[in-house]
Each structure stands twice: as C-alpha cells, then as structure tokens.
Amino acid sequence: MMKSTFTTASLLALFLAAGAHAATRDLLILGWIENAHLVDPGMDLKAKLDTGAETSSLDARIIKKFRKSGKRWVRFAVSDRESGEEFVFVRERIRTIGIVQHDGSRQTRPVVRMSLCIAGRTLSTEVSLIDRSEFIYPLLLGRSALASFALVDPASTFLSDPDCEPPGDGTGPP
Predict the structure, then answer these.
(1) Cβ pair 29, 153 in contact under 8 A
(2) Could you count the other beta carbons within 10 Å of the beta carbon of residue 97?
(3) Total domains, the chain
(4) Would you say residue 3 has pLDDT above 60?
C-alpha cells in the first residue's frame, strides 16, 4: 500500500488554488450568525450558517401534512420570537427528508420553499420544518442555500445586513 505525502509547498498550492477559485466567484464573507428576514410575512430572525448541514431548517410548529388536488402540501406556524406574533403558512411540500441526529435517532421532516433575505440577497430556498424552540437560532442555513454566494467565517458574526430591495423597480408598488 502506498501512502500519499504532502509537502508544505503542495499544501500551499492547493490552498491558493482553492482561494483563487473562490475569489473568481465573488463570494461574500458572512459570519456564522447573521440577521435574516423572511420576506413573507416580513419577519426578522437570526440565522445560524452551518456548512455542515446540507439542508436549511426553520423553526415551525403545528406541522400538518395533507393532500389537495393531487399535490402534497404542509400547513405550519412560525412565531416571531421578538413580538410573539404567530404566522400560519400553507406551502407545497417539495419532498420529505430523513435526518440522522447526533444521538443516532432518525427524524423525517417536510421540506418547503421559502423566500428570505440575507446579506442583501433574496433567496428562494428549501427549508425543512422542525421545532427548533430548544435552539437559540430559529433559522439554520445549510450549504445548499449558501453555496452560490457566500463563504462562512467561523470566527465572526453579523458581518452583513439583511436589507433587500422589494420586488419591482423601487418607484412604487409592482
């Protein structure tokens, strides 16, 4: 069996190549915690950016899956942790995913598409719905949501504002 060995020069070359690739994509650098904004209903929330998670997840309660007109739907409630106001959503269920927890237990979660704003970017991204009330941050953004525009600096927080332009040209209602 042959072992691969890396010299300092080869590791530096790999690092520089990876850095050059990232720089050409004009990626934003975000902290591991950022402010985000759910476009509908217009709710601000804190998000944990987690490159170890593929799929994003949102703190949701009263999650009810149902079928209507041959499509799969889910009804759920999201609470604004600041004001206590609760918003009820009905979204088409894109898929159901299985998650293996750190303790080895398994969960199934419905996945829906939500519009959110982070770092001046409006994203339409998939989020799994789960009760995150035991967690500090109601939104976890995984790498599939971040890959196209951001790198995460694990030593920093709140490097951006979630300010996004409303739909339209900015001169009035669309």
Answers:
(1) yes
(2) 15
(3) 1
(4) no
